[in-house]
Specification:
- With 542 residues, this protein is α+β, with helices and mostly antiparallel strands.
- Helix content is 28%, strand content 26%.
- Strands 21, 24, 25, 26, 27, 28, 29 and 30 form an eight-stranded mixed beta sheet that branches.
- Helix 2 packs parallel to helix 4.
- The longest helix has 16 residues, at 183-198.
Length: 542
């Protein structure tokens, strides 16, 4: 790849390495310079730019990032659209992230241009959480390196990264007591287990109390196994100090076996791993009564995710296993979950209230394209993009529009003042969004070539932390539709009036605008007249 100082008159198609601010126009880093861009730079007196020009042996950064992300994703993992050489991997479900660390290291050692960063293996994750990111460091990566990396990832039978979802369990709990035991301790035992399980889905607990004696505990283990428990937890009135102590002896008397005693995690050293047939039986350390993170959490999470825990797994927990007195570690059972980075929740507001005056007697939203009404096509495409929630604003011929989208995953809101112009529909759509929405894509209902990947690119680009809060699609330097606006602009968007939308915000907040290149002219195409509709039907690309 060529990189360096390039004369402006020879910069057509080059990738701008550093942002430039011209009068009233900002050229962002990574912009592919068009003929109009080159002319604007020359008119501004800029004779040279620092830019990159990939060669035939290079793969564009977004193409490379997307290919590698798809190859890395295993079960329970979704790929977001790439942007600026980055493609994020998102958890599709709540569960435990599983990372092939050895393969990850091999990948990151292949070539300095290719990187993948992930959450820690065995980290609990929530659906929608970003759990990995593929980043291409330069503007393009060597095709040979991408091919080697893709081959490495595709050879992994379960992918580089997957999410094991939480499984519903019936959990048996045996709490023993001694003559001088306090009844409150039994309540603490149950609460400690309940609170942990509550963070991992819905589970049933069958509880038993018995004397701290081998025959009594063994009988309860057998009873819980026969009751269908898929996991049995033993809370002793006295700590386990040897694999021949009361609780491990009871496991043996119930027909089970002790697989391992002790773990290199503190707190949690005195955990006992056993098994009664196919049912795991865990002897709990006293710290499991506490809400603070301890070794039992790590074992319980794997079991709830349906993973087999073996002695070697326990022995390999020493790295990072010193949990005591680490104030910065989040305690999910003390004051709620720790903050995690989730993919932004981006809604879509589809404007379908207009009167189609320029169409004459035809309601353009109900005109058929490939045998289905245009508005049906738009809603279906937006739903495919994974934007959500979807809100459709009706107005003119509302009953017919509603009928056209029946059965599709969209909420309907009516703009009674649709005759007054676009602003009323915009307000109605935004008003229907909940407080958990981070941004909204404003979609026009008459763009026949709108595709799900158009919206996916906008959502991938959106990042308020990086200053990308208004995402606008472009083709050859010209801006089109739809546009994604961050939540902080909603109050101003609610203040517009008349037949205008919110595009004026793009000029007023230039520092928050991110231009998102589109591969074709479809972002400009809408159908406003009978002639335009007829021409589109006649010339529609196959």
């Amino acid at each position: 790849m060529e990189f360096g100082d390039i004369a402006t008159d020879k910069a057509l198609g080059a990738i701008l390495a550093h942002a430039l601010q011209l009068d009233g126009q900002r050229f962002a880093k990574g912009r592919v310079l068009s003929a109009e861009d080159v002319l604007a730079l020359q008119q501004a007196g800029i004779t040279h730019v620092v830019a990159a020009r990939p060669g035939p042996e290079d793969m564009p950064e977004d193409e490379a990032a997307e290919a590698l992300a798809r190859a890395a994703a295993g079960k329970g993992v979704a790929c977001a659209a790439p942007f600026t050489g980055r493609a994020n991997l998102i958890a599709d479900c709540d569960g435990l992230a599983l990372v092939d660390i050895a393969a990850l290291d091999r990948f990151n050692m292949l070539d300095e241009s290719l990187t993948i960063a992930t959450v820690a293996s065995y980290e609990p994750v929530d659906a929608g959480q970003m759990i990995a990111t593929v980043k291409i460091i330069p503007f393009a990566a060597p095709r040979a390196a991408v091919a080697r990396a893709t081959s490495l990832l595709q050879d992994l039978p379960q992918g580089l990264l997957r999410v094991a979802p939480w499984h519903a369990h019936t959990v048996g709990l045996v709490s023993t007591y001694l003559p001088d035991s306090k009844p409150s301790l039994l309540n603490k035992n149950r609460k400690g287990l309940e609170d942990r399980l509550a963070a991992m889905g819905s589970h049933e607990i069958i509880e038993r109390h018995c004397p701290h004696a081998v025959p009594d505990v063994a009988a309860e283990i057998e009873s819980l196994r026969d009751a269908g428990c898929s996991l049995i937890c033993l809370f002793g009135a006295s700590a386990i100090v040897d694999r021949r102590d009361v609780l491990p002896a009871a496991i043996g008397q119930a027909g089970g076996e002790v697989e391992h005693f002790g773990m290199p995690v503190d707190p949690g050293n005195l955990l006992l791993l056993g098994r009664c047939g196919t049912v795991p039986v865990i002897g709990l350390p006293g710290c499991a009564r506490s809400p603070k993170l301890n070794g039992f959490d790590w074992v319980l999470q794997r079991l709830v995710a349906g993973l087999r825990v073996q002695p070697l797994d326990i022995m390999k927990m020493g790295g990072g296993g010193l949990l005591k007195e680490i104030a910065t570690r989040p305690q999910p059972r003390e004051g709620g979950k720790a903050t995690i980075r989730k993919a932004p929740r981006i809604a879509a507001v589809i404007l379908a209230a207009g009167q189609s005056r320029r169409m004459g007697a035809i309601n353009k939203l109900l005109a058929e394209i490939d045998g289905e009404p245009l508005i049906t096509r738009i809603v279906r495409v937006v739903a495919e993009s994974k934007a959500g929630p979807l809100v459709l604003v009706t107005g003119h011929e509302a009953d017919r529009v509603r009928a056209a989208v029946a059965g599709l995953p969209v909420s309907l809101v009516h703009n009674h003042d649709y005759a007054d112009g676009l602003s009323g529909s915009l307000k109605a759509g935004l008003s229907a969004l909940g407080p958990d929405v981070d941004g909204a894509i404003i979609c026009l209902g008459d763009m026949p070539e709108l595709r799900a990947d158009h919206l996916a690119r906008l959502m991938a680009a959106f990042d308020p932390g990086e200053g990308r809060e208004i995402c606008v699609p472009t083709f050859e330097g010209k801006r089109g539709n739809p546009v994604l606006f961050g939540r902080r602009f909603f109050p101003e968007m609610m203040g517009v009036s008349g037949d205008v939308g919110a595009r004026h915000l793009i000029g007023e907040y230039a520092e928050a605008v991110c231009e998102v290149p589109n591969p074709d002219r479809s972002i400009f195409l809408d159908l406003d007249t009978p002639q335009a509709l007829a021409a589109y039907r006649q010339n529609r690309p196959e």
